[in-house]
Design brief:
With about 100 residues, this protein is an alpha+beta fold. About 45% of the residues lie in helices and about 15% in strands. Strands 1-2-3-4 form a four-stranded antiparallel beta sheet. α1 packs antiparallel against α2.
């Protein structure tokens, strides 16, 4: 499963927050019988995990180290969420998870 993050005007943390908020709004608009609601809920859970547990300072450093002008990143979602990673500018970024 993948989630596209728009980095054209924001860092990876802000882009993740905005996508999370967009998906929550979309989830409230969905009918419970909508087959996409399960996918949306999984995406919301993955983004929540990322936002609560990732060291975004480290991710920003990893992004800037790629020297990219790329405006999109792809969050690759897996179960368990601790194995998720980000594809950015043909590089793979692995979040460092906070220990607390």
């Amino acid at each position: 499963m993948t989630i596209i993050l728009d980095l054209s005007h924001h860092c990876i943390e802000t882009a993740s927050k905005r996508e999370y908020e967009r998906l929550v709004r979309q989830c409230f608009k969905c009918d419970d019988t909508d087959p996409d609601s399960s996918i949306i809920e999984t995406h919301i859970s993955a983004l929540k995990y990322l936002l609560e547990k990732a060291d975004f300072s480290d991710l920003r450093n990893q992004c800037s180290a790629t020297g990219s002008v790329e405006k999109k990143a792809v969050l690759m979602v897996s179960k368990p969420f601790k194995d998720l990673y980000i594809r950015f500018n043909n590089a793979t970024l692995y979040p460092v998870w906070k220990t607390r």
